[in-house]
Fold these 3 entries.
Entry 1:
Amino acid sequence: MAYEVPALGTAGQVYTAAAHNIIVNDILEFAPLVGVWSTYVPVLTQLGAVTKTVNYASYIVAGKLVIVSVYLDITGTGTGNNAVTVTLPVTAKAQAGITGVFYLLDANVDNYVGTVVGASTTTVAFYRANAGNTPVGVSPNFTFANGDSIRFSVTYEAA
């Protein structure tokens, strides 16, 4: 909605209660589009489910825009030479529209950074920077183990 706010301090113009109510009502009309941060419990897999501690897993929906931020500490083990995936809290409109960044600590070997992409409309996979089209877990071939951790954030359009 369009409205004109009078310039305060200009001779003869007064900021009235009616003008205030118009502005507040317009803001409140769009407030549901902004949403609030919600928590969720992501499922982490490396062939099978991997036990983990969820330090932080939150998302916000603004219209159809979804922003997700996750920090997991690994407490179990995965299965080597298999892609690492994590579930999303809201189904995406398209797998190709899911993008973000990650940091993975393989406590026994190295740290990895790279791109998060949609593995499906409900899960993401992780690809190291400058490592081609093979997901983390396969390249490099490693097994999640107690003491490892992964952090990531993604944005995408909801279905």
Entry 2:
Amino acid sequence: MSGVERTKIFLAAPLFSEAERKFNSRIARKLRKDGHVVWLAQETFTREATHEHKEIYETSLSMLKESNAVVAVLDGPTVDAGVAYEMGFAKALNKPIIGLRTDLRVFSKVHEVNLMLEISLIKICRNVDEVLSALASVI
């Protein structure tokens, strides 16, 4: 990635299972390799640490405000509630949001994810390489 200022990416992703956390780490690693600065909640708030819910909430919103763009993991039969909230907050801040959906399940015959979320997205990508291309076109 070229340019003076590095792009700050907020990676919105569910983090409740070991598989999710490993997947998120892989995405963050690829984004960082491309030169982006990535904030991923699971790296700040670990299961072993004790954090107040308000601290998690406020830190997440602060990092969203500081970000240049959001990459949102959309896998699952429905998008994770926390990811959906973070997307809405980012949209209200006019941040570009790129979705990553590797899940083969369909949400409906018409939409890949909930209509309100889908319309908020710049693009829904199928892999991290597509995400990197989409980021390059909006940043």
Entry 3:
Amino acid sequence: MAWTRNDIDALLLRSDKAVERAMVTLYELQRADEQRSTSTHLDNTVGFSAFDARAGSRFARWVLGYNDKDQAVYEPKSLTADGASRIFWRYCKNGEQVIDRARRIALKHSRQLTDVANGVDLQRKVG
């Protein structure tokens, strides 16, 4: 079965776990230098957009338990965990929850997530 963008969007709208996995997937699509700097250096339509790179990268690191050097040194956490809103408040608009900001990022990038779900190698596609 091939996933459609509507399928992925529906999954993201109903599942916090899918949103967290989307943050990790998009982070993994970033180039290594982009992961280190939590920014986008190349407009290649792969990974986070420049606007979402810092927040999305920080969210993915939180979910993975990574420090700022991309080392797994913490217990992986949910974006709905206690403390997430205190740490990530600056990335959220008008008091929105961290998971809701992450959901907006995931939905914005759901075309890539659909490709990944369908086995498309996005790195090769732009490489």
